[in-house]
Amino acid sequence: MKKKKTAKPRIDPRQPRKRNALVNRKLLTAVIAMLAIAGSLYAITKSRTQPATATETVEASDHCDSGIRKARAAHAALANQPGNVEPADASASAPPFINSSTAPGAAPDGMLWIPGGEFSMGCEDAEMRDARPFHRVALDGYWMDRTEVTNEEFARFVKATGYVTLAERQLNAKDFPGVPAGNLVPGSAVFVPPANAVALNNHYNWWRYLPGANWRHPDGPESDLKGKEKHPVVHIAYQDAEAYAKWAGKRLPTEAEFEFAARGGLDRKRFVWGDEFKAGGKFQANTFQGHFPEKNTGEDGFIGTAPVGTFTPNGFGLFDMAGNVWEWTSDWYRPDYYQTLAATNQVTRNPQGPSDSFDPAEPGAKKRVHKGGSFLCTDEYCTRYMPGARGKGEPDTGSNNVGFRLVRSAK
Ligand SMILES: [Ca+2]
User: Fold this and answer.
1) Among 17, 128, 140, 273, which lies 20 to 30 A Cα-Cα from 372?
2) CA of residue 35 to ligand 1 center, whole Å
3) pLDDT score of 411
4) How many whole angstroms from 375 Cα to the centroid of ligand 1?
5) Residue 348 pLDDT more than 60?
6) If you measure from the C-alpha of residue 29 to the centroid of ligand 1, how many angstroms do you get, rounded to a whole number?
7) How far is the CA of 241 from the centre of ligand 1 (A)?
8) From ligand 1's centre to the CA of 168, what distance in Å?
9) What is the 3-state secondary structure (H, E, C) of the chain?
10) Is the pLDDT of residue 96 over 50?
């Protein structure tokens, strides 16, 4: 865990200074994981040295789309000018191809056969530079969980193995030199809405490191899983997901496998269900309505996570491939990866992600790609629940809107 400086403590200021330092460092790490939802790394960097003010506006950057309307307009403009694409995108205009191969045997419990094929991956949104350009990818078929891994499923894993998640473990003193052992309190990042509207360029306004928050206590130590048995498990670090996968005989999907599956056979659509946000006048995913971050109206029925499978499945029959919780993929994150693939002018077969991770906004922090967005994605702030969009997070960091689902290779 990299040491980072932060300008303003967000935890109880009555606590000793060093404790604040610890919590802030952990919080910052957690907040970094939220960048995909919360937006601009530039903004977060800026927020370390400049206290936010109500007059500050959201910084547009490659880390967050500023809104569906703008993205929709860009998409419409492209549709009207089919030749207006970057040269490297030329082959991306081909329609997707879905393999006709049948499933290699009976479906494992809770999984669907994704036949693989060829598709155009990424997006063309000007403000999602790390997800540009469209590039051609071919995939072999694979099995995929129909839903995100639920609390009751994760509980079965824990009962069988005795596994303890990262958020439940005592923090290692060597990662926090100078901090008294008694202050090394396990916990995780929880979205805590402020009482009033706040500047959107300071994630500390709504992300808090809560001691005692973990998968068993998703909203903090006083919360529990009663009634949330079928909600997606959260506060899952990458290695937690890997441990579950090993136990289940599965693996995390690559970013390409997630996106191919999320698109459900559709061609470069804005959403996993098509181009219209509220298709048929009905919410298609668990996202955020109201005014971000202080007022969540829950118009789609859910303020936080929703039971998996609540919303209409996509073209492949998969649930919650957009919204509800972010999902880990096995790819390392680099913002230039798509450009590298597109520059080959070839179809990339079964991409596994770059061999290393680099985020220019957080040099030294290695990150894995998140996909799918969460219940905090909003038209007003960040719309990275769209299938071509990307999120990212440090592997040791979970939060109450990051979970996972798994795949299994055909052989
Ligand atoms: Ca919602």
Assistant:
1) 140
2) 19
3) 77
4) 5
5) yes
6) 25
7) 24
8) 27
9) CCCCCCCCCCCCCCCCHHHHHHHHHHHHHHHHHCHHHHCCHHHHHHHHHCCCCCCCCCCCECCECCCHHHHHHHHHHHHHCCCCCCHHHHHHHCCCEECCCCCCCCCCCCEEEECCEEEEECCCCCCCHHHCCCEEEEECCEEEECCCCEHHHHHHHHHHHCCCCHHHCCCCHHHCCCCCHHHCCCEEEEECCCCCCCCCCCHHHCEEEEECCECCECCCCCCCCCCCCCCECCCCCHHHHHHHHHHHCCECCCHHHHHHHHHCCCCCCCECCECCCCHHHCCCCECCCEECCCEECCCCCCCCCCCCCCCCCCCCCCCCCCECCEEEEEEECCCCHHHHHHCCCCCEECCCCCCCCCCCCCCCCCCEEEECCCCCCECCCECCCCCCCCEEECCCCCECCEECCCEEECC
10) yes
Taking the centre of ligand 1 as the mean of its atom positions, its distance from the CA of residue 256, in whole angstroms, is 26
Between the CA of 324 and the centroid of ligand 1 the distance, in Å, is 8
CA of 36 to the centre of ligand 1 (A): 17
Winning range, highest mean pLDDT, from 53-62, 123-132, 390-399: 390-399
